[in-house]
Amino acid sequence: MAFTTIRRIYAHAGLQSFVEASGGLFVVGFLVKQGLSPSFALATFALILLSRFALRAAVLPLAHRYGLRSVLLLGVQIRAASFIMLPFISGLGPILVTYILVSGLGSVLYWTGYHAYVSAAGDNAAMARQVSIQQAVTATVGIVAPVVGGLLLGWAGPLAGFAIIAVIQLLAAAPLLGAPNPVIDPGTRADPAIVRFGRRVYFAEGLQSGSSVVVWNLALFVTLGQSFENFGGALALAGIGAAAGSLLIGRLIDGGRANHSLTLAYGLGGIVIAIKALAWELPLPALVATALGALVTPMLATAMLSPLYAMAQRSQCTLRFNMATEGGWDLGCSTAALVAATILHLGFGYTLPILLGLGAIGAIWWGLAQWYRQPSTA
């Protein structure tokens, strides 16, 4: 089951990565183009995450009744609808509020279902390699997809562009249509100690992602003249070296060198955050920082997700584990976005919000190092 299912997950991950890199990464910048200030655009993103936190309880009864795969596929459909709504946003108003709720619901169903599904389907002995393959697929798609997204939004226009992205989002469901549909036993409970541990790591990861990815992408978009084509081109050039980093880190973890992989990934991650904090004001340094970030991002994702998927398996209920821990990610990322929105609203630049990620990087490294020091993990 695991072998067949994991191949389907790889195919789905490729299509889903295309959606994220051609559409999802453009959303905050698009809101700025539609008339929101950068601070309000970040606040909107934070509200989407907080709506996910509030709506997450809906995942459990759906998974009990219909299965994990069904929850994931429902999330795919609602996310497609949210992309279609984007062109009709013209500033603060009821359409923006509706978009926040629809996007939050689709996102929480999809990502909670996805991570729980991968946790249930993966082979624990080769988890890091499997995660690294998914990250390599994501990185490879990331070379082409941002250019496509930039051209669609810049030349074809938002209406046609987001409609095409919505169609691709629906197509991402195809590889999973014949896959197993694990049903969650209502009587199972996740290990509270593992859940608390994973939630803390996920909160720090959300804080790191908010600072070094969400805030950084907005800073890059502004620095490149709010051009979808320039922004997409920058992300595409940066994606060329990302696949190598993800495959390297996965082999280190599966080869028993987990602490080496953590030191490498999070040491480089801290350096990149410091560079981004200094480089965002000028286009050329910002492009160099983006390229370095693209190399490190899949390494960070593989180093973090492989132990977290293992934690989910060991917790005895992958869905409940992911529901609890992803709530931590939502709170961490929304905190970073709201802090950045406040700082920008007060007239300061992007340096301080980006540097917030340094503390988060240290917290993730320490938490995962503690996990690997446990005798049962070793």
Structural summary, described in words:
- This protein is mostly helical and 378 residues long.
- The chain has one domain (2-373): Growth Hormone, Chain: A (Up-down Bundle).
- 81% of the residues lie in helices and 0% in strands.
- The chain has helices spanning 2-22, 27-33, 38-55, 59-66, 68-85, 94-121, 127-156, 158-171, 192-223, 228-238, 242-254, 258-279, 283-314, 318-345, 351-373.
- It is globular, with a radius of gyration of 19 Å.
- The chain starts with a helix and ends in a 5-residue tail after the last helix.
Largest sheet: none
Beta-strand level of the residues, as a percent range? under 5%
Model regions low in confidence, pLDDT < 50 over at least 5 residues: none
CATH architecture classification: Up-down Bundle
**Counting H and I runs of at least 4 residues, what is the number of helices?**
15
Tally of separate domains: 1
Query: Structural class given helices, strands, pairing?
Result: mainly alpha
